[in-house]
Amino acid sequence: MKIISGSAHRELSERIAASLGTELADVTVTAFPDGETFVKINENVRGQDVFLIQPTCPPTNQNLMELLIMVDAARRASAERITAVIPFFGYARQDRKDQPRVPITAKLVANLLSAAGVQRVLTMDLHAAQIQDFFDIPVDHLYAKPVIINYLRDQNFGDDGKLTVVSPDVGGVKVARAYSDALGATLAIVTKHRVSATQVEPMHLIGEVEGRDVIVIDDMTETAGTLCSAAEILEKNGARRIFAGVSHGVLGDLGRQRIRDSAIEMVITTDSV
Fold this sequence. Notes:
alpha/beta; five-stranded parallel sheet; six-stranded mixed sheet
């Protein structure tokens, strides 16, 4: 087995290798002056089971292209099997035609990975589970829920029995229900209206949160618009303390500032990006 790391998340790759009692393969990943990516695998991978670890988080296009080039390098070096380990799958929100004349970019990325030579994909908490169907190769879809739930239990949130799990939109109800069942908590839903890519408006709260600890569960946050809008309506409805549990914390400057200015006390996330 060979584990190859791209430049997107070297630290995570090193921890994975350490957990397996091995070391990362020696690979050179550099860029030419014009910005083109160059990859060279500096050891023999012929007949090896190769795992390429590269979340396609921002800069998304750069990290995706680097992954494709690494896959091509491994394929041409006669690797036996190539698995793309993509903890965060970029472009996952473009998974359907919701307007005229728009692409389904998540499907395009699936095609690109297969065409490059990927034989298996390992990813976590896809924005839409049906993205697995975009691939004609095996996809291992993992979940952050067990890790986040263990952490929530250790923190004793709502230890007086007053704990509510909140889905910040209707589409996340199924995941939020799984969290609430595991934690023995009640469930609430905030419906929202998305104004733009960076702005959402909360509309209604369904459920009881007054005097209760609240955990808002979402698969990812980038600008924190959804989280902070939900926190606003929860605070107005008397929530005691507000926390957030997010699988992928793709937080830029805007998202960090919004969270600092919001009623959210803590954001719990994984190290996928």
